[in-house]
């Protein structure tokens, strides 16, 4: 009985280990690319993707401070890198992106300059992100929407 159980477990384990052919899949940030052979190739995030991840984390913290009524602190100057960070696809750094980035920075700066209306300015910054991502890279929109302060 034990031998039969061991044999069944081995057969099951071997059948689960077969490679399946997977079609190419690319995402906006191209973190992982799945190739037809089923192998994974890791890609480094672009400067812009890395910056946006950091801005997301910073805005999660800022959202919490605004909701709790804590002091806002100082404007994070690394946000200004949005104007010169290298993108995954450099052709995406066009006039539309530059305009949206400027609107985002303006809204972010207003949070710190006008803390009485921080919630409104914060949500304006989230809107600028979403408007840009609707055109450039829709993938993170659902995640960005979680930043809204109700």
Q: Any chance you could write out the topology, listing elements then pairs?
A:
Blueprint (H helix, E strand, L loop, with lengths): L1 H15 L15 E3 L5 E3 L4 H22 L26 H19 L4 H18 L5 H5 L5
Antiparallel strand pairs: 1-2
Helix pairs in contact: 3-4
Strand order, largest beta sheet: 1-2
Task: Flag low-confidence runs.
Answer: 17-27, 29-36
Give the amount of beta strand, in percent.
under 5%
Broad structural category: mainly alpha
For the largest beta-sheet, the strand count, sense and barrel status come to:
2 strands, antiparallel
Order of helices and strands: HEEHHHH
Number of E-type strands: 2
Number of helices, counting only DSSP H or I runs of 4 residues or more? 5
What is the C-alpha radius of gyration, as a whole number of Å? 22 Å
Shape: globular
Measured distance between first and last alpha carbons = 61 Å
What is the average of the pLDDT values? 81
Q: In percent, how helical is the residue content? A: 40-55%
């Amino acid at each position: 009985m034990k031998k039969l159980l061991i044999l069944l477990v081995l057969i099951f384990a071997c059948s689960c280990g077969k490679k399946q052919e997977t079609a190419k899949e690319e995402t906006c940030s191209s973190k992982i690319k799945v190739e037809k052979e089923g192998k994974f190739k890791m890609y480094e995030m672009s400067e812009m993707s890395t910056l946006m991840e950091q801005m997301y984390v910073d805005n999660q913290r800022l959202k919490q401070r605004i909701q709790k009524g804590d002091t806002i602190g100082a404007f994070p100057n690394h946000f200004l890198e949005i104007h010169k960070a290298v993108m995954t696809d450099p052709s995406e750094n066009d006039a539309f992106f530059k305009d949206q980035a400027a609107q985002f920075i303006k809204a972010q700066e207003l949070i710190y300059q006008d803390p009485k209306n921080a919630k409104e300015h914060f949500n304006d910054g989230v809107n600028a992100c979403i408007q840009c991502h609707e055109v450039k890279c829709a993938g993170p929109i659902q995640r960005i929407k979680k930043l809204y302060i109700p």
